[in-house]
Write a structure and sequence with these properties.
Helix content is about 80%, strand content about 0%. By secondary structure, the chain is mainly alpha-helical. The protein has a domain at about 15-215 and about 310-370: Up-down Bundle (Rhopdopsin 7-helix transmembrane proteins). It has a two-stranded antiparallel ribbon. A hairpin with a 2-residue loop joins strand 1 and strand 2 (about 175-180). Helix 4 (about 95-130) packs antiparallel against helix 5 (about 140-165), helix 6 packs antiparallel against helix 9 and helix 9 (about 295-330) packs antiparallel against helix 10 (about 335-355). It starts with a helix and ends in a 7-residue tail after the last helix.
C-alpha cells in the first residue's frame, strides 16, 4: 500500500513537472512571437504610410491596397497572441473565465487566418489585373476565384461559431482544458479540413495557372519564330539567284503583268497591311506575357507569381500541420495554452510568408531602422 501511494505520488509529481515545463515553453514561445509580431506589424504600418506617399514605378508592382492588406494581416496576429497570454495567465481562475478567454482566442485566430487568405486572394486578383496576365483571366478563372473567396470566408466563420457556441472548456490545476465529459465533435474538424484544403488548393492553383500559361506561350512563340526566319532566308537566296538569271524579256513581261494586275495587287497589299497590323498586335499581346521580356517587366511579374506560390504553399503546409498535430497527435486533456501556441506559430509563419511575397520585404522589416 505505501509503495502504491509512493508510485502514485511520483507519477503525479512527474506529470506536474511535464505540465510546468510545457507552460514555460509555451510562455517563452508566445512572448517571443508577441514581441516579433508587434515589431512586424508596426513596421508594416510605417511602411504602408510611406508607400502611400510614393508615386510612379514604385507603386506599379506594390499597389497601396496590397501593402495595406499585408499590414492588416500582420496586425491581426497580435490580438491572437494577447489572448493566448491571457490563457497562460489563468493559473487560479474559474471555468467561466477559461471559456471567455478561449472564445476570444478562437475568434482572434479566425480573424488572423481569414486575413492571411484574404491577402492571398487579393494578391492573385491584383496579378490577374496586370496587362501581361489579364489575357488569362477568363470567366472560368474568375468564377473559381470568387468561389474560393466565399468558401474560405464561410468555412472560417462557420467553424469559429461551432467552436464558440458550446461550453466546452473548464479550469483545472493544469490550466484551461477541454471538459472531460465533453463529447468529441469531429464536425468542426471535418469542415475545417475540407474548407482549408479545398480553398488553399484553389488559391494555389490560381497562382500556378498563369505561370504555366506563360511557359506554354513562350514555347509556342519560339516554335513559330524559328521556321519563319529560316523561310525568309530561303526566299532571299532564291530572289538573289532569280535576279542574276533573269533576262530582259522576262522583266518586260513582268512589267506588263504588273500594270495589268496593279488594282488586284493594291487590294492584296491592303489586306496584307491589315493582316500585318493584326499579327503585330497579337504578337505584342503574346510577347507581353513572355517570361524573358527585354524590358524585364514580365520577369518581375513572374517573380511575384513565384513568390506568391511559395507564400501560399508555406501557409498551407503550416496551417494543416498545426491542425493535424492538435487534432490527432496531442491528447484530449492537453492544456489549451499548448494548442494555442502551436496555432500561434502557424499564424506567425503566415505573416512571414506574406512579407516574403513582397519585393520590398527588407524595407518592410527594417522600417524603423532606416534614417528619416
Amino acid at each position: 500500500m505505501p509503495l502504491a501511494q509512493n508510485s502514485i505520488a511520483t507519477s503525479s509529481s512527474s506529470s506536474n513537472i511535464s505540465y510546468e515545463s510545457g507552460w514555460i515553453v509555451s510562455q517563452s514561445t508566445n512572448s517571443i512571437l508577441l514581441v516579433a509580431s508587434i515589431w512586424l506589424a508596426s513596421s508594416f504600418i510605417l511602411f504602408t504610410c510611406e508607400s502611400s506617399k510614393t508615386r510612379g514605378h514604385a507603386r506599379k508592382y506594390n499597389p497601396i491596397k496590397m501593402v495595406a492588406c499585408g499590414a492588416v494581416t500582420a496586425v491581426s496576429v497580435v490580438p491572437r497572441l494577447i489572448t493566448t497570454q491571457v490563457v497562460l495567465a489563468l493559473r487560479n481562475a474559474t471555468s467561466e473565465a477559461c471559456e471567455l478567454a478561449m472564445d476570444a482566442s478562437i475568434i482572434a485566430y479566425g480573424i488572423g487566418l481569414i486575413s492571411t487568405y484574404m491577402f492571398l486572394w487579393l494578391r492573385q486578383s491584383t496579378l490577374y489585373s496586370h496587362p501581361s496576365v489579364k489575357l488569362f483571366y477568363t470567366t472560368s478563372v474568375k468564377f473559381v476565384s470568387y468561389a474560393c473567396l466565399s468558401m474560405m470566408v464561410t468555412a472560417g466563420v462557420g467553424v469559429s461559431i461551432l467552436f464558440i457556441l458550446p461550453t466546452a472548456y473548464e479550469f483545472s490545476k493544469r490550466g484551461c482544458v477541454l471538459r472531460q465529459n465533453e463529447q468529441e465533435n469531429t464536425l468542426p474538424f471535418i469542415i475545417l479540413t475540407a474548407g482549408l484544403v479545398l480553398g488553399q488548393a484553389l488559391i494555389l492553383g490560381l497562382f500556378i495557372y498563369p505561370l504555366i500559361r506563360h511557359r506554354s506561350v513562350q514555347i509556342s512563340l519560339m516554335i513559330t519564330t524559328v521556321p519563319s526566319r529560316n523561310l525568309s532566308r530561303v526566299d532571299t537566296s532564291f530572289n538573289s539567284v532569280g535576279c542574276v538569271d533573269s533576262t530582259y524579256a522576262v522583266e518586260r513581261e513582268e512589267l506588263q503583268l504588273t500594270t495589268r494586275l496593279n488594282p488586284i495587287r493594291q487590294s492584296v497589299n491592303h489586306l496584307k497591311r491589315k493582316i500585318s497590323r493584326y499579327r503585330q498586335t497579337r504578337s505584342q499581346s503574346l510577347n507581353s506575357v513572355s517570361i524573358q521580356s527585354p524590358n524585364h517587366t514580365n520577369n518581375r511579374i513572374t517573380n511575384i507569381i513565384k513568390r506568391s506560390i511559395a507564400c501560399t504553399s508555406i501557409s498551407v503546409v503550416t496551417d494543416l500541420f498545426a491542425m493535424i498535430v492538435v487534432a490527432f497527435v496531442l491528447s484530449k486533456n492537453t492544456p489549451k495554452y499548448v494548442t494555442n501556441t502551436i496555432y500561434d506559430v502557424s499564424l506567425f509563419v503566415n505573416v512571414l510568408s506574406v512579407i516574403f511575397s513582397f519585393e520590398t520585404r527588407r524595407k518592410i522589416v527594417t522600417s524603423w531602422c532606416r534614417p528619416r
